[in-house]
Structure formats: C-alpha cells, structure tokens
Design brief:
One of its GO terms (molecular function) is glycosyltransferase activity. By secondary structure, the protein is an alpha/beta fold. It is 40% helix and 18% strand. It contains 15 helices and 16 strands. An eight-stranded mixed β-sheet has the order 4-5-2-1-7-8-9-10, with helices on both faces. Helix 8 links the parallel strand 11 and strand 12. Helix 2 crosses helix 3, helix 3 crosses helix 5 and helix 8 crosses helix 13. It starts with a strand and ends with a helix.
C-alpha cells in the first residue's frame, strides 16, 4: 500500500518545530508503510520573504518530502486558497502518479489540504482520508470555507479526528458518524518522560524555592495567557508562572509583561522566549503543574507531553482535552476564557502532592508508533474496500 500524505504545516529549514506533530505521526507511519510527503509551498510573485521554504524535493529525517509551489493571494481571496492549492500542485501530482501512483491520499488538515486533495483525488479516482485538527474551527465560521470543507469531508473515504468535539462538528457538517474515527495525537515517549525536578530547574536556571506553573505555547492571544496572568494574581506569593514560547498572532512578551505588572505579578512571571524542542521536557519536568488556557485547540501536544513527564495539567475545555486529560487523577479542566475557575483549579492542583508515576499511568499515554498502527488500519480498510468495489 502506497500512501501520499499532504500537509501545508510541516517542519522546514527555517522552522524545525513547525508541524512537529504531523512529522511525528508520519515518521512513525513510514516505519510500517511505503510513504511520501507533500508539503506545498505558498508563493506570491510580489511578496519577498526570506523565511519561505524553497520548492523541490528533500530528505527530511528519513522522509521523502516534496515541496511543489502553488500560487496564493496573501490577505485577500482566502476562500480560494484550497482551489489554488489543488491547481498549483496538479502538474506535479499527475507526474508523480505516472511514476509512483499512491493507493490513498492522506490530508492532515481540512483546509487547505483536505479540500485541495479532495479535488485532485476525485479527478484520478483515488480514495482520500482527512484528519481533523483545530483548523476546522476557523473554517466553519466562514460560509464559503464551511461549504467546501463539508463537501470534502462528506466525500472522504474516512475521517480521522484528534478529538471527540471535532468529530461532533464533522457530523453537524453531514459526515456519516460511522466513517469517523477518533485518534488523539501520540507522544515521543523517548523524549518526554519523568525527570528529577531539581535537576531540571538547575539546568534551566529556574527558582528552586518557588512553586512553578509552566505554560508551553506561543504568545498569541488565543492561548489564554491573559487569563492565566490574571489568575496568578490570586495565588500565593511563592507561585511563579513560566511562559515558554515566542511572539505570534499579535501577542508579545512586552505585552504580557505589561499586563503582569498591572496585575501586580510582574516579579512572578518568567518569559523564556521560544525554546528548542529538546529543552521542552525539562520545563515540564521542572514544573509543579502545567497550564494551557487556550480558547481553541485540536489535540494539544502540550497537555500530552506534560502528562508523559508525570506533571499534572490545568487546561481549558477545548479540543481533545476531555479525551486526553483524566480528571481528577491527572489535573483539572476549566471553561475557556474564565479567570476565577482557572485560579481555583491552579490553587487546587498546587495544593496536592502528585505522584509522577500515577499521573503517567492514569493518562494512558500512547506512543506515536501506536497511533501509526491505528491510522494504518484505517488506510488498509479503505484500500481493501475500494479494491472489492472495483
């Protein structure tokens, strides 16, 4: 069985952490399947951006990654992105199929990947599968995108959702519930594991005499940092908040520092900036608890990775959080965009003595290899059913 996977969000030379969860699933799947990756590169003739990945073919951590270029219009006509995506890579796709025709197409986001892939798949009569991640929530708010996504999902041979909530949204769009399978993300259990707290704090130069809450997320507004900082103001003086992440979507370190000063907790906020992937486990290991107060998520890796390190989590009730965070055994879940429930939950979690081993065991963390096996089964079922029909 040959699989061609599509993801606009995939690591590249300018951002090695971009779409790391997509890479991890595909790397695990490539161990047991013949697989190639297509990560299309958006291009606009009058936009010069030194960070844009060049088109071509490369070997990325053992995966053959094709990066064909497609035309798009930045800032306007965004509802046409998926069609431009399909049109732009069509020539490359047809050429590849003459040399190496895939048995199934695997789209990692509903937009633009899923919709674009659906157009190409139907042209050549190849079955396709779409994975639902947090991007779906943006699309269903826009009428034109909602219609295009609904059409692509209803015609997909199967739909994988990283959360039960998103599976529900797909059903509302008209997808047969029997064709939807919920498969949350996995964790690199070789990297994220229980570590000595003091050792982690020493390596990161973090306070030894404080209780630490750690948030690993970019500084964009939808990550809920404003609410966490306001909630921090109601916690004891020995509690510090460590924010690990860089500026994004209008959110900056300067803005959050100003908010913390206004709330009277400027001296309790530690902003680390973006950190290399290999240092993230140390931050979870250094924490007494982690916090993720997002307004929207798919399947938040930060929650899974914290649990894999044996660190309890306080998270807002979005995306796959209900699916992956066992309450009360490994943390607390609160409504998004709220301060008082968040403050109470953080205080509650900090008041308990947590066994890292118990947190890991209650969470039933799965490796990416296990996830890959579940995904492979869906693909096999689709391909074999297709062959029986023919």
């Amino acid at each position: 069985m040959k699989i061609l996977s599509f993801s606009y969000c995939f690591p590249n030379s300018t951002n090695k952490n971009w779409g790391i969860f997509v890479f991890q699933r595909l790397a695990a799947l490539a161990k047991i399947q013949d697989l190639k990756v297509c990560s299309p590169v958006p291009w606009f003739p009058f936009l010069i951006n030194k960070d844009v990945q060049k088109s071509g073919i490369e070997l990325w951590e053992g995966l053959e990654v094709h990066r064909p270029r497609f035309f798009y219009t930045p800032g306007i006509f965004k509802n046409k992105d998926a069609r431009l995506y399909a049109r732009g890579i069509r020539t490359w796709f047809l050429k590849l199929c003459k040399e190496w025709k895939p048995d199934i197409l695997d789209a990692h986001f509903v937009w633009p990947d899923g919709v674009g892939v659906s157009l190409l798949a139907r042209e050549l009569g190849i079955p396709y599968v779409i994975t639902l991640r947090g991007k779906l929530y943006e699309c269903i708010k826009i009428s034109s995108q909602r219609k295009q996504c609904a059409d692509a999902l209803k015609n997909a041979a199967a739909v994988i959702s990283v959360s039960g909530l998103m599976a529900g949204e797909a059903i509302k769009l008209g997808v047969d519930k029997d064709r939807i399978t919920i498969i949350p993300n996995g964790v690199d259990t070789d990297v994220f594991s229980i570590k000595d707290k003091r050792m982690c704090r020493q390596k990161l130069d973090l306070p030894m005499d404080k209780r630490l809450l750690v948030t690993v997320a970019h500084l964009g507004h939808r990550k809920g940092h404003h609410e966490v900082i306001q909630a921090l103001a109601g916690l004891p003086d020995d509690v510090n908040l460590v924010l690990v992440g860089g500026p994004a979507q209008g959110g900056t370190a300067e803005e959050l520092k100003a908010l913390a000063n206004k709330a009277g907790v400027g001296d309790k906020l530690i902003l680390t900036g973006p950190q290399p992937y290999e240092r993230i486990p140390l931050y979870f290991g250094a924490a007494d608890a982690s916090v993720l107060a997002s307004y929207r998520e798919g399947c938040p890796n930060a929650v899974l990775e914290s649990l894999a390190c044996g660190t309890p989590v306080v998270a807002s009730d979005v995306g796959a959080v209900r699916d992956i965070l066992p309450v009360p055994d490994a943390g607390r879940i609160v409504p998004p965009r709220t301060v008082e429930p968040l403050e109470k939950a953080m205080a509650d979690v900090l008041s308990h003595e947590w066994s890292p081993e118990d947190v890991v065991n209650s969470s039933r963390i799965r490796s990416w290899n296990q996830v890959a096996e579940e995904v492979q089964k869906i693909f096999k079922d689709v391909v074999y059913s297709r062959r029986e029909e023919i």
